[in-house]
Design goal:
With 193 residues, the protein is an alpha+beta fold. It has helices at residues 2-26, 29-40, 47-60, 65-79, 85-91, 94-105, 138-141; strands spanning 110-116, 122-125, 151-159, 164-174, 180-189. The chain is built from seven helices and five strands; from the N terminus they run ααααααββαβββ. Strand 4 (164-174) and strand 5 form a beta hairpin.
């Protein structure tokens, strides 16, 4: 009889761990959502943001899937190279300068910011991303792919570059008429919230 009780207790403990872990992981969603809603969404309508996305959407309108993959491959090769012409052209644009400023003003709450066009290609960024095309990733599919006003908060992970516990929040960006034109992903240091 004691064996059965002990086995039942052990079984319930094992079953309770994944549920407790899942609840703990989801605890970050509300504070990240609140931060993004209060501190990020207000500047997503800035003319620098909207103009940069619109310009890149016009430039990239006719890119094929093969073109996108080639651009992404070129970007990935440049990440570890001394020749970073493609990366530098993005890092030095007006939008990237605005994103660096927003990151710095966050006092450590934001670990990275990057804005994507309608195809999921980087338009501007505060830091170098490992790839140029985000269109095949959940951050893009669950924000821009979900339509107007979408907000996707991803799991908490350790960010190797900043050595912080980070959650990425992604938001659809719409133009003045309310039409979705791109998305932004913000790395949030969950310990700062």
């Amino acid at each position: 009889m004691h064996k059965i009780i002990v086995m039942l207790l052990l079984g319930s403990t094992v079953l309770a761990l994944p549920l407790g872990t899942a609840l703990a992981e989801e605890a970050h969603v509300a504070p990240v959502t609140e931060y993004v809603t209060a501190k990020v969404k207000p500047w997503l309508t800035d003319t620098v943001v909207i103009s940069a996305i619109k310009a890149q959407n016009a430039t990239n309108a006719k890119l094929s899937d093969a073109d996108i993959l080639a651009l992404d491959k070129k970007w990935r090769a440049e990440v570890d190279s001394s020749n970073r012409a493609t990366i530098d052209s993005v890092l030095n644009n007006a939008l990237s300068k605005l994103l660096v400023e927003k990151k710095e003003k966050s006092e450590g709450a934001i670990t990275e910011i990057f804005v994507m066009d309608a195809k999921g290609l980087n338009v501007g960024q505060s830091d170098i991303t490992s790839d140029y095309w985000q269109g095949d990733e959940a951050k893009f599919k669950k924000s821009f792919g979900a339509g107007k006003n979408a907000l996707f908060v991803d799991e908490v992970e350790k960010d190797e570059s900043s050595q912080t516990l980070q959650s990425q929040a992604s938001v659809t960006i719409s133009d003045e008429s309310g039409t979705p034109i791109g998305a932004v992903t913000i790395g949030i240091n969950v310990d700062s919230l």
